[in-house]
Amino acid sequence: MAGQTPARILLVDDREENLLALEAILGGLGHELLRATSGAEALKHLLIQDVSLILLDVQMPEMDGYETAAHIKGRTRTQDIPIIFLTAIDREAHQAYRGYAAGAVDFLAKPFDPWVLRAKVEVFVGLQQERQRLLRRTEDLERRLDAVGGEKLAATLARVERLLVMAGDDGSAGGPLAEAIDLLRSLREDLASPVTAPSQR
After folding, report:
1. Alpha-carbon dihedral of residues 153, 154, 156, 158, nearest 10 degrees?
2. Among the listed residues 31, 75, 68, 37, the one whose alpha carbon sits nearest the alpha carbon of residue 53
3. How far, in Å, CA of 184 to CA of 29, rounded?
4. Most buried of 2, 58, 173, 183 (most Cβ within 10 A)?
5. How many angstroms separate the CA atoms of 94 and 165, rounded?
């Protein structure tokens, strides 16, 4: 994608020659490429590194790609990272189902076309970066709303209270106006009181 920010991509394959091939194909895109030779090593990377995309070999000893993907999707920190499975197995229906169930966004069969690989990487990196931008904007808006929302609500309640008082003198005569005024005053007091955070369990 034009103007795309450089990203960090994790390459996971137990064969050195496959990692070298991936690095040769993707090296010109300008992204930072991390490598892991096992599922366990990939999970260690993800404990300390933020990545935008994972290229994950399906057939690996000890922990295969499906099991590695399940661990990645099971962690809150990494569950939304897109995973492209790299497989030498023909993409039969049950293999595809297992991969998508494990959280894959796509499959590439080896040997893969370098142009197709580069195109898919750029698309998924771009989508992930856009998602992260939207999340940051949403969190920023929520913080800003939290900061000003309480003040604006308190001011609105005070104005409504004044209008009700004007409509029914001071509300001392009782009835609906007096009850509304009491309710508004109670709400304003609640807003002014410090909020106690719930205990963490």
Report:
1. 160
2. 31
3. 60
4. 58
5. 71
Contact residues for 138 (Cβ-Cβ < 8 A; gap 6+): none
Q: How far apart are CA 163 and CA 186, in angstroms?
A: 16
**Tokens describing residue 77:** 């920190």
CA gap 79, 91 in Å, rounded: 24
Q: What is the pLDDT of residues 46-87, one digit of tens each?
A: 999 899 999 999 889 889 999 999 999 999 889 989 999 988
* H-helix segments, the chain: 16-26, 39-48, 65-73, 93-101, 114-167, 176-192
Contact 28, 121 (CB under 8 A): no
Give the H or E element holding residue 11.
Answer: strand 8-12
Q: How far is CA 6 from CA 22, 53, 56, 83, 126, in A?
A: 17, 12, 20, 18, 10
Give pLDDT tens digits for 5-35. 788 999 999 999 999 999 999 998 999 999 9
